[in-house]
Amino acid sequence: MKKHDTILKITQGAMIAALYVVLTWVANALGLANGAIQVRFSEALCILPVFTPAAIPGLFVGCLLANILNGCVIWDIIFGSLATLIGAFGTYFLRKTKFVFTLPPVIANAVIVPFVLRYAYGVGDAHWYLVATVAAGEIISVCILGMILKVGLWKYRKVIF
């Protein structure tokens, strides 16, 4: 990879991380970023690996920073960020599918985050209830908002990415 390409990828990743942090802060200010039902606008960015692999570390770092800045407990910082990383990798590997690429972040968060909510935060709801609510929030964030974002960016993908 040429030096210019490396700088471009690092810059793209940093911009994605910054966007993730800001969008999570907005969702948190509205009371939507944490808890059993989470609609993080930032999770819509999980479709960006469709456009560039630079989104993978950008999403991970953004989620890590957002969780730290929002005062999340260490287990949420670690495992919530890993869920986003796993979802981003899955999206990248499924990027050539029409809709299936939206599912890895939903599945990763629906599997991991309920354990964080129960054991790190002491949320007393039933495990499968938490799976359903986390999945619902991710479906809104990734499958709906993320697809809207993808459609909006598609025309400009060669310019932006």
Which keywords apply here?
Arp2/3 complex 21 kDa subunit ARPC3; single chain; QueT; membrane; transmembrane helix; 161 residues; transmembrane
Main sheet characteristics: none
> Stretches where pLDDT falls below 50 for ≥5 residues?
none
Number of continuous helical runs? 6
Q: From the 3D coordinates, which CATH architecture would you assign?
A: Orthogonal Bundle
Distance between the termini: 15 Å
CATH uppermost class = Mainly Alpha
Q: What order do the SSEs take from the amino end to the carboxyl end, as H and E? A: HHHHHH
Radius of gyration from CA coordinates: 15 Å
- Share of residues in helices: 55-70%
Beta-strand content = under 5%
Structural class by secondary-structure content: mainly alpha
How many domains, as an integer? 1
The dominant shape is: globular
CATH topology: Arp2/3 complex 21 kDa subunit ARPC3
How many strands appear in the DSSP assignment?
A: 0
Mean pLDDT: 94
